[in-house]
Write a structure and sequence with these properties.
7 helices; 0% strand; t-SNARE coiled-coil homology domain-containing protein
């Protein structure tokens, strides 16, 4: 995950379009691998839960396998909590990267564009124009000053879209994990808190994917 964040940080700073393309490909690969690993871990937890459930079909089975059931349930909860912590850290890194890209969009607008009278664009206007770009609205006359710069800004916007999509996928994994452990109060609270955090981030961003 640290490698993924480093790639995002470099992508924000680079001005070389060739290097940026390479970084975006690497980010896509790392994001996909991270998601696949988390999904695989969640599926293994699901399998563990089902195996333990087989030992609890009847009261006699529960009594005969009580020690095994207790051990397996403790192992399950330990691994589920560990997975939740990993997912939470991944969520934090993605949120941080998205914030970097949004700030970069505002900086690009301030540096590359001017008002109609040639004066510099202030922070509030840059923030407003950046939001327009994120909402897929590039109709402002300011953006007509340079199509090349606009293309770069749109690429940055697409980076944000991809991160937001990964956050939606993560939210689904949090929900799935919460469902698997819905009878475990303390861990359930941790997982649900992360579900709500993920939902708030996506809703705050409010942008559809590509």
């Amino acid at each position: 995950m640290n490698e993924l964040q480093q790639k995002h940080a470099e992508n924000v700073q680079t001005v070389d379009p060739v290097r940026s393309k390479t970084l975006r490909d690497e980010i896509e690969r790392l994001s996909r691998e991270s998601y696949e690993k988390v999904t695989s871990a969640k599926d293994k937890l699901d399998a563990m839960s089902k195996n333990t459930a087989k030992l609890k079909v009847t009261p006699d089975s529960i009594q005969a396998n009580s020690a095994v059931i207790r051990i397996e349930e403790n192992q399950y909860m330990h691994l589920a909590l560990k997975l939740t912590m990993v997912m939470t850290e991944y969520q934090r890194l993605q949120s941080t990267s998205a914030a970097f890209y949004k700030k970069q969009t505002q900086r690009q607008i301030k540096i590359k564009y001017t008002n109609a009278d040639g004066s510099a664009i202030d922070d509030a206007t840059a923030a407003h124009l950046a939001e327009q770009v994120l909402e897929n609205n590039t109709s402002s006359y300011i953006f007509q000053q340079s199509k090349e710069v606009l293309a770069s800004i749109i690429e940055t916007r697409n980076d944000i879209y991809r991160i937001e999509q990964s956050m939606r996928e993560l939210n689904q994994l949090f929900s799935d994990l919460a469902f698997l452990v819905n009878e475990q109060g303390e861990l359930m609270d941790v997982i649900l808190a992360n579900v709500q955090q993920s939902i708030r981030y996506v809703e705050k961003g409010g942008h559809s994917g590509l």
